[in-house]
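Now produce a polypeptide, keeping tokens residue-aligned:
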Amino acid sequence: MGQSSGIGVLDKSVQVLRASASGPVGLADLCAATGLPRATAHRLAVGLEVHGLLVRDHHGRWRPGPLLAALAAGAPDPLVTAATDVLPRLRDRTGESVQLYRADGLSRVCVATAEPVSGLRDTVPLGARLPMTAGSGAKVLLAYADPATVRAVLPGAGFTERMLAEVRRRGWAQSVAEREPGVASVSAPVRDHGGTVIAAVSVSGPVERIGRRPGERWAGDLVEASEALTARL
């Protein structure tokens, strides 16, 4: 069990976090590792998930969440480190704005960017929190999200489960004027070495320049960039 702080709920929460550190865990795994009752383990895991300390994969299993990386003082984020090399090359190849998004609950957060030095840009600020209901990045992240997240987002989304299935089939998503009028984008999933989708890499820009079918133009480059990110993790 480890050391006790004398604060029961804190100690139990740390038990749940430790149980997820070795890999994705389901509720039965949490109970076996911590000795906690199912109701308690579930309540704590969901609470930690709300605060970004845990996140669920597309199988509904919990693993360490993005807030843990943010709180790790001085510890570099491997994905963001990889992005410093890959994103600028994608920007130079396309001439457009490039972003990297992570899912965070029912939102997505921009964790890295690369902007063209001139011309009309689709600037998404670093750290910007965007909805999961619109945009190609949202489609990619939701296509591989756990069922509970999909059920929570789809009623207010501009796309359907059938469209998400198409994203999974072809390996990329596109959008035209979904998130913002006049802006088009195309995105691809970034996976860890276990095959779990952990982010979405995107190219976005004005519809008048990118066109209304940006996937036909940039999908291959996005998939190549996503594979390069995975290789560098």
Q: What stands out?
A: DSSP finds ten helices and eight strands in the chain. Strands lie at 54-56, 62-64, 97-104, 107-114, 129-131, 173-176, 183-191, 197-206. The chain has a mean pLDDT of 87.
